[in-house]
Amino acid sequence: MARLFCERMPETLTLYILNGPNLNLLGVREPDIYGHETLADVQAMCEAAADGARVVFRQSNHEGQLVDWIQEARTEADALVINPAAFTHTSVALLDTLKTLSIPVVECHLSNPAAREAFRHHSYVSLAATGVIAGFGPRSYELAVRAALDLARRAGAQD
Ligand code: DQA
């Protein structure tokens, strides 16, 4: 049967990009692992990669604030990129909130947690993520933005 594609244009999409604890210190925090770019640099890369989509880019050190923003994304966003930072490995609350979403969710990490300490090998967030991009430094965000927007655009395609 013929497929009818009615993909959405990027400029009609809203992408939420949420960042967890200590990512406000990017550039000065363990630069050998996380690089020299600041979070403002990462935001600029995301906006450049977003192809005209509206980008809502935020960071918090507080789990509850991230829960509130994920809940907001449930009704306001077409896709979500999230780097939960240390909450990746600890937060059932973030997992439960992400499970309420029906939009694509891309988990994003600068480093490759699977190649680091054992406690970083488990991600609660991955249980609710559409996919994971990790290990490419700030470029992980660029790839995550492209993946999230691609998924969101295709969400408009019908059989
Ligand atoms: C991180 C990896 C996490 O294990 C760590 O706690 C972070 C950053 C990353 O982007 O590589 O804070 O999410």
What do these coordinates show?
- The chain is of the alpha/beta class and 159 residues long.
- It is 33% helix and 16% strand.
- It has a 5-stranded parallel β-sheet with strand order 2-1-3-4-5, sandwiched between helices.
- The longest helix has 16 residues, at 139-154.
- The radius of gyration is 15 Å and the shape is globular.
- The chain starts with 13 loop residues before the first strand and ends in a 5-residue tail after the last helix.
- The mean pLDDT is 94.
Task: Give the class from helix and strand content and strand pairing.
Answer: alpha/beta
- How much of the sequence lies in strands comes to 15-25%
In total, the number of strands is 5
Overall structural domain count:
1
Which molecules are bound in this entry? 1,3,4-trihydroxy-5-OXO-cyclohexanecarboxylic acid
Judging from the principal axes of the Cα atoms, what is the shape? Answer: globular
Supply the CATH class. Alpha Beta
Question: Main β-sheet, in a few words?
Answer: 5 strands, parallel
What's the name of the CATH homologous superfamily?
Dehydroquinase, class II
Subunit arrangement of the protein: single chain
Q: What is the average of the pLDDT values?
A: 94
Q: Could you tell me the radius of gyration in angstroms?
A: 15 Å
Low-confidence stretches: none
> Which fold name is given in CATH as the topology?
Rossmann fold
Instruction: Write out the strand line-up for the largest beta sheet, numbering strands in chain order.
Output: 2-1-3-4-5
Cα end-to-end separation: 8 Å
Query: What percent of residues adopt helix (DSSP H or I)?
Result: 25-40%
Proper CATH architecture: 3-Layer(aba) Sandwich
Order of helices and strands: EHHEHEHEEH
